[in-house]
């Protein structure tokens, strides 16, 4: 078990017995339509919903990194797959305006 509030966070992998077989999900990162990072290892989650929650929790950090490296409008996305097909895509747009 995880201590305190960590056990209830949707961003963490839940404690699961070792014998449980869990599906593996892969997270491909795109910036402006170009593949930024291909997930070769994937992560195990108990469900698609848990995998999507993980991707959503990571989105703000990805947006922050992208904003530092680009001064123009930037589109970022994370494609969540089961290794065979894309199940969900999480998209975001960063708009920088100088005034």
Question: How would you characterize the overall build of this protein?
Answer:
The protein has one helix at residues 48-69; strands at residues 24-31, 34-37, 43-44, 74-81, 86-94. A hairpin with a 4-residue loop joins strand 4 (74-81) and strand 5 (86-94). Helix content is 22%, strand content 31%. Strands 1, 2, 3, 4 and 5 form a five-stranded antiparallel sheet that branches. The protein is built from one helix and five strands, in the order E-E-E-H-E-E. The termini are far apart. The chain has 99 residues and is of the alpha+beta class.
Q: What letter string, H or E per element, gives the SSE order? A: EEEHEE
> What percentage of the residues does DSSP assign to strands (E)?
25-35%
**Ends distance:** 50 Å
**Structural class assignment:** alpha+beta
pLDDT under 50 segments (min length 5)? Answer: 1-10
Give the helix tally.
Answer: 1
Biggest beta-sheet profile? 5 strands, antiparallel
Number of strands: 5
Shape: elongated
Estimated radius of gyration? 16 Å
Query: Could you estimate the helical fraction of the residues in percent?
Result: 10-25%
Mean pLDDT equals 78
């Amino acid at each position: 078990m995880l201590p305190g509030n960590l056990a209830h966070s949707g961003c963490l992998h839940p404690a699961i017995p070792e014998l449980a077989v869990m599906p593996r999900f892969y997270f491909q990162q795109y910036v402006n339509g170009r593949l930024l990072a291909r997930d070769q290892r994937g992560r195990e989650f108990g469900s698609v919903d848990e995998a999507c929650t993980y991707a959503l929790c990571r989105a703000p950090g990805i947006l922050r990194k992208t904003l530092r490296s680009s001064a123009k409008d930037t589109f970022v996305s994370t494609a969540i797959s089961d290794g065979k097909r894309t199940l969900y895509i999480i998209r975001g747009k960063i708009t920088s305006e100088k005034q």
